[in-house]
Design brief:
heterotrimer; A mainly alpha (326); B alpha/beta (465); C mainly alpha (300); B: 465 residues; alpha/beta; Rossmann fold; 8-stranded mixed sheet; 5-stranded parallel sheet; C: 300 residues; ABC transporter involved in vitamin B12 uptake, BtuC; two-stranded antiparallel sheet; globular
Chain lengths: 326, 465, 300
């Protein structure tokens, strides 16, 4: 960590804290949502960039967490309704971790395309369940999500959505980013790098690849759960569309757009992706087209993503986690 | 660089970051508290108090912006285009006559999609584009998502019909800014039940081919609930659920044929109904049994003669372009002719719904202005629209106290006529269902609450029949 | 359920199965040989349907007799072939060398592009071209009405399957293809020009999927977003049948189609959930699929 890293971080945090005052309310809302997706993308990066596993079903955990929050807030829960955001977060993390453990234990045995597709199978199965069990899950109509209390304090709708919750999300975003940084630099993180490069050799060296991959998977599921649980009150509503293979593809796009092999890449990717989507949709209904073209351009010309390009231009600023491939 | 050193560095950084965050948050929060109005000041302005409480507001110079939010991409694009067509038509006519109190109307359009996209679009309309009014057909799940936002954003939204039981009963039982310019989704099953009970009194077996999502499920469920009351001899023998936007209904059609029902109810709409009708014709469904289509008429202009045969019973929501008969009701004749000139299509009910909604809006503003001399705020406009009535191509439409536009509901049996490329309803079979018999009477004024009060659940109301 | 209904249900199942087969066989070949999972295959299917519609619409308006409309089907497929002709050297050739994640993302992007371009050109409403469907007419099979056009589809799909089988197992080029799919390095050592092989395979696959979209149009309709659902199910077919297996694709597609058809008739609540359940079960208990090869250590 160089001095300018530190300065950049502090400056970034201060700037982020002051944003709600400078920008119109609409953008505060957008940035809060973007941070939720950034958490989701960062968690995903540990299996995509770090361990080399491409999953096409991570929207499952986003959905599980968001629906858990919705369920706990339902009027049918009566006296057991939970409005405390902290409690909701913990329970959502718990459910995502459990589901991640279960699904992961099945998926981990496979790699490459099979890994991706078995995850796809699970997310689409979850999607079908959400639709079929409509009397419980609300089906296509989804479930409403009410305003939770933050540290016991309840705010009014508009203050919550366009101001207070932004800071809450910012705080959690900072904490989760720090934790991910620690994980990356821990023995687990380095072992995952080894598994990505050459799993056979890693196994021979004594790394328990199955267990470590599962650990990485569950971590990514937890992060997706945190992102989903935070996104739910912002959106005010959850519906099955949040968990399809297409939305799972979005997080892959975010990672590759920002740069799969750098730490900050997925965060940058999430910001670019979501804000681009919102801005483009303002101007044209054909944003899928623009998204598709951008994806193709990035894959062909900037496979390292934005941060990969930055690391080439300013190598000291950004550290890549792979050696230059031939 | 050793790992320990980097960790310590990072801890320092993190601490600095947290301090920075805390500082920023504290400063920000304090500043915002100073700028925002103190909580607890409610705006309870009624029409009469305005004149006394504050100076009259003059008519603003800027144009009135109406934002249409509906599908402009995907298989339901015809719906968005119909909504936009109706809005543009109304705007042009009003602008030609001088606008609303001199203000011209500008129509904007935004695409919707999944609920989070729709929420985005709505928030953007209000916070960025600063629209005065929004309108459009969004579908039930999107409506559920945006209804709470509408009430908070304090800008009226004219939904066409997107209503589900949950929205009406739980989410927003006392709406102020939410209006429904089209027939409620909940009312259609009752209309279907009344038609079936009337036209097929000897039927005993009912089957259903409905799209597998909340709207389709509720349509079938409430149809059967109402039918059990009106004609207890009828039972549902088979219900099949093709996925929304499916292309292959053959298995479903075959299953229904095997059950040999007397009547088949289908709530498939848009492109689904077009494909279903085409395949059903090939499998002979229309010949073997009677089909009642709840919402096929949404795709009116795609229902060409080779797709829809004669003899299909179609519900036309709250407007059919030939009823009230154009030769007897000049406003309808003008409406249909003008719309065909503009778009070369026959107006679907969405067109009429948005059209009449905008005229109701204009009427409300003009009335409040005439009464108070001050240009009304959004909540005053909304209260003035409630409990009023507006003249439309579908006839006189009454707006209830919970924002529902109601008028007589047409239905009929299809036929082919040389003058029309689409299947039309045989005028000899066209009937009207009175709206009071299909709407849950929750919006009765207090003095008339005997013995059905407001706030009754839909299923409980049907149980009282 | 009586026999006549069962027969109709089986036919319906096959109707659905063949559309999946026509898409997934292309996916299978592309992945087996070039390790590219072409999500855009769904988009090519859609392009086949739309271009056929455009041709049929124009032909009907111009007043051509009905047999011209039959020619519109291969013509529509030809349009898809043209698009592939343009795409292969510009896009796909660069994807062969990339990691799987990247090629996946690129084809995903391409799929989005196709979907929006089709919407730009053809608008959002569903488009039908029923002329051929109506012309072939309806006959009764064991007392139940059945559209005869579906038999055209069956014959066509069966010929494709047969033709591919003959190609793979009875021609020299087919053998070379199979060999290269098994072991590319060895194949190039033996003198096979892999790039030309890739190009030829690519054209074959997209022509098949274009024909699939074209021939199904008269029976269904062309609508915006029609590529997304079949592509997911085609993944499932590919996995369940086993990579690199023609037999597997046919069998898996039939299983899914029949399960769906019988499911709808007997237990209407089921549909897509069953397919994904089968996919997961297959991946757990027999990950190589029904007829796929066993994995080597490197592939794990």
């Amino acid at each position: 960590m160089k001095l300018y890293h530190v300065v950049a971080l502090v400056a970034g945090l201060v700037l982020a804290s002051l944003l709600p005052l400078i920008l119109p309310k609409y953008y505060t809302f957008i940035f809060a949502v973007t941070m939720c997706f950034a958490i989701y993308a960062l968690g995903y990066s540990i299996i995509l960039g770090r361990t080399g596993l491409l999953s096409f079903g991570h929207a499952l955990y986003l959905g599980v967490a968001a629906y858990t929050v919705a369920f706990l807030m339902r009027p049918e829960m009566g006296a057991f309704r939970i409005f405390s955001m902290e409690l909701l977060l913990i329970i959502a993390i718990g459910t995502s971790a459990l589901v991640g453990l279960g699904v992961g234990a099945i998926c981990i045995r496979y790699t490459r395309i099979f890994f991706g597709l078995i995850n796809l199978g699970f997310v689409m199965l979850w999607h079908s369940l959400l639709l079929k069990l409509y009397y419980v899950t609300g089906g296509t109509d989804g479930l409403p999500i009410y305003i939770p209390s933050l540290f016991g304090v309840t705010f009014s709708h508009e203050i919550f959505r366009t101001f207070i919750f932004y800071y809450y999300v910012l705080g959690i975003f900072a904490i989760t980013t720090y934790i991910m940084w620690r994980i990356y630099n821990s023995p687990l993180g380095l072992a995952l790098k080894a598994i990505r490069e050459n799993s056979v050799r890693a196994e021979f060296v004594g790394i328990p690849i199955g267990r470590y991959r599962l650990a990485a998977y569950v971590i990514s599921a937890i992060y997706a759960g945190i992102g989903g649980a935070l996104w739910a009150p912002l959106n005010g509503h959850v519906s099955p569309d949040v968990s399809t293979w297409l939305t799972s593809g979005d997080v892959v796009l975010m990672n590759i757009l920002g740069g799969m092999y750098t730490f900050t890449g997925p965060i940058v990717g999430a910001f670019i992706f979501y804000n681009l989507k919102v801005q483009i949709m303002h101007f044209t209904t054909y944003w899928s087209f623009i998204l598709g073209i951008s994806a193709i351009i990035f894959v062909l010309l900037f496979p390292g993503g934005v941060m990969g390009w930055v690391s080439k231009v300013m190598p000291k600023l950004v550290k890549k986690s792979y050696r230059q491939k031939a | 660089m050793s790992e320990k050193a980097s960790r310590r560095d990072f801890v320092k950084t993190a601490a600095a970051g947290i301090v920075g965050f805390g500082l920023g948050a504290g400063v920000g929060y304090g500043a915002s508290q100073m700028m925002a109005p103190p909580p607890g000041v409610a705006r309870t302005v009624t029409v009469t108090q305005t004149a006394a409480a504050k100076p009259p507001k003059g008519v603003p110079k800027e144009p009135i912006k109406i934002g249409i939010a509906s599908w402009f991409t995907g298989p339901s694009t015809m719906v968005g285009e119909a909504c936009l067509g109706g809005a543009q038509f109304a705007a042009d006519e009003i602008n030609k006559a001088g606008g609303i109190l001199g203000r011209k109307i500008e129509v904007l359009k935004r695409d919707i999609g999944t609920p989070d996209v729709t929420v985005e679009a709505v928030r953007r309309y209000v916070l960025e584009d600063k629209v005065d009014l929004m309108a459009g057909d969004t579908g039930g799940s999107n409506a559920n998502a945006i209804v709470p936002h509408i009430e908070q954003l304090k800008t009226p939204f004219f939904f066409q019909c997107s209503t589900t039981v949950k929205e009406v009963e739980e989410l927003n039982p006392n709406p102020l800014y939410v209006f429904r310019t089209g027939e409620q989704n909940l009312a259609e099953p009752n209309v279907a039940a009344q038609i079936i009970a009337r036209e097929f009194p000897n039927a005993t077996k009912i089957a259903g081919i409905n799209p597998d999502y909340v709207y389709g499920r509720e349509a079938m469920m409430y149809s059967m609930m109402a039918l059990n009351k009106l004609a207890p001899n009828m039972k549902s023998v088979l219900e099949t659920w093709p996925a929304l936007n499916a292309t292959d209904f053959s298995s479903h059609i075959t299953a229904v044929l095997a059950a040999k029902p007397d009547v088949v109810i289908t709530a498939c709409w848009g492109g689904d109904f077009v494909t279903l009708a085409k395949q059903a014709t090939a499998y002979g469904l229309f010949k073997e049994t009677n089909v009642v289509s709840i919402l096929g008429a949404m795709a009116l202009n795609s229902l060409t003669k080779d797709i829809v045969p004669p003899g299909v019973w179609m519900l036309h929501r709250d407007y059919y372009f030939m009823a009230p008969a154009p030769n007897l009701y000049p406003l309808n004749k003008w409406f249909v002719t003008e719309y065909r000139k503009r778009t070369n299509k026959y107006p679907e009910f969405d067109v009429m719904q948005v059209f009449s909604g905008i005229f109701a809006y204009k009427q409300a503003i003009e009335r409040v202005y005439a009464a108070t001399g001050s240009y009304p705020e959004n909540d005053e406009i909304c209260r003035a629209i409630q409990n009023s009535q507006v003249v439309s191509p579908a006839g006189h439409r009454v707006i209830t106290s919970d924002g529902q536009f109601i008028n007589a509901l047409p239905y009929g049996k299809t036929m082919h006529h040389a003058d029309y490329p689409i299947a039309i309803l045989d005028p000899k079979t066209v009937g009207f269902i009175q709206p009071e018999t299909v709407y849950n009477p929750k919006s009765l004024p207090p003095v008339l609450q005997y013995p059905l009060g407001t706030g009754m659940k839909y299923s409980d109301w049907i149980a009282t029949w | 359920m009586d026999t006549s209904t069962a027969v109709i249900i089986i036919l319906n199942g096959l109707f659905y199965a063949f559309s999946l087969f026509l898409i997934s066989i292309g996916l299978n070949m592309l992945y087996g040989l070039m390790r590219i999972l072409n999500i855009a295959h769904g988009g090519l299917y859609a392009i086949g349907a739309f271009s056929t519609w455009a041709l049929m619409n124009a032909a009907t308006k111009a007043g051509y007799p009905i047999y011209v409309l039959w020619l519109c089907i291969p013509a529509g497929a030809f349009v898809v072939g043209l698009i592939g002709f343009f795409l292969e050297p510009t896009l796909f050739r660069r994807l062969y060398k990339l990691r799987e994640e990247y090629s996946l993302l690129a084809t995903f992007g391409l799929m989005l592009v196709f979907d929006d371009v089709l919407r730009m050109i053809f608008g959002g409403s569903p488009l039908s071209a029923n002329q051929l469907y109506n012309w072939v007419g309806v006959e009764t099979i064991l007392g139940n009405a059945y559209p005869m056009y579906n038999f055209v589809i069956y014959v066509f799909a069966a010929s494709v399957a047969l033709g591919l089988w003959a190609f793979f197992y009875r021609t020299k080029m087919g053998r070379i293809l199979r060999g290269t799919a098994q072991d590319r390095e060895m194949s190039t050592c033996l003198g096979v020009n892999a790039s030309i092989l890739y190009t030829q395979t690519f054209f074959l696959t997209i022509f098949i999927v274009g024909l699939g979209g074209a021939i199904y149009l008269p029976a269904t309709s062309a609508y915006s977003g029609m590529g997304f659902e079949p592509i997911v199910l085609s993944f499932a077919v590919m996995i369940i049948g086993g990579l690199g297996s023609l037999k597997g694709a046919l069998v898996a597609a039939s299983i899914i189609g029949l399960v769906r058809a019988f499911g709808i008739a007997l237990i209407p609540e089921l549909e897509l959930a069953v397919v994904f359940l089968i996919l997961i079960i297959t991946l757990i208990f027999r990950p190589r699929g029904l007829f796929g090869k066993k994995f080597t250590r490197e592939e794990k």
